[in-house]
Amino acid sequence: MKIAFFVNDMEREYPNFATTVLAWQARQRGHQVYYVTPEDWLLDTDDSLHAHVREVPKGKSKDHGAFFKLLCSKETKRKNIDMADVDVLMLRNDPSTDVKDKPWAAESGILFGREAVKRGVMVLNDPDSLSRAVNKLYFQSFPRQVRAETIITRNAKDIKEFAEKHDGHIILKPLQGSGGSGVFKVDKKNASNLNQMIEAISRDGYVIAQEYVDAAKEGDIRLFMLNGQPLCIGKKYCALRRRQGDDDIRSNIHAGGKAEAVEISDTELKVAEIIRPKLIADGMFLVGIDIVGDKILEVNVFSPGNLHSCSEMNGVDFSEPIIDAVERKVRIKEEFAVDFDNRHMAVI
User: Fold this and answer.
1) 307, part of any domain
2) Is there a domain that residue 130 lies in?
């Protein structure tokens, strides 16, 4: 199998990133691994789709850390390949990372992912559905019963009325963005700064105002979903609890949050079951959902992180069932290529 991983850029990749772990697992099994960035695409004169990839030498590495060193070394060569020869393209970039400084790059994975599908490549997650998920408005398409009450607006009066409805306790965040960037918790202590918070976010677009869920005091639970189902090995779920850092409402690990092991209860499984049909309908192969109580606060369909941390805490390697699922899809596609489109193949 030839598998390509599309990322924002190589400088922002790290040894413990989920993409690294998945690429390492694929290479350990003898598959050819490529890395692609937004600068690498080439749509040629004959309408063939090429990419100037980083081709990781075949072989094995003792762990994903050693694999990452090889990836960044001179042994990993640049090569122009015809994407029609690639079996799988995994879109692992975060469009919001590029939207300000490199707007041309933000949706390049989606655009060229669609072109790859036309040329017979299986693209995960499905690029057509990802195009509808480039901002948090996609979140509003999930069943209302698992969403915290939310409004999206640029009107300060709307937000103030919403805050009053919720006794002054709300969360404000930008419609576009990720990683906890630009997130504010409004309460009675800082209500006098509400105008400044609204201005800071609305300067770049729409504002999401969301009711504050009391269970958020305990942090959120990041749960991975694979083929629309909670990812697990035996009775161990690919999940962790992310607690807020000191003096910071954000539970994102890189924003100061702390990761802890967590037991997945019937509450989280019920939430996962409610959103399962939507994930399947949209061809979302690998997703990270953030759960607080019986609500989901976010659905990360682009580059869900913490896969390595979940594996370490559970004493298993969750990259194995993910690559197992990819291999299975490739086998099915080889036998029944004409029977499934990319969106269905992504979650079969």
Assistant:
1) yes
2) no
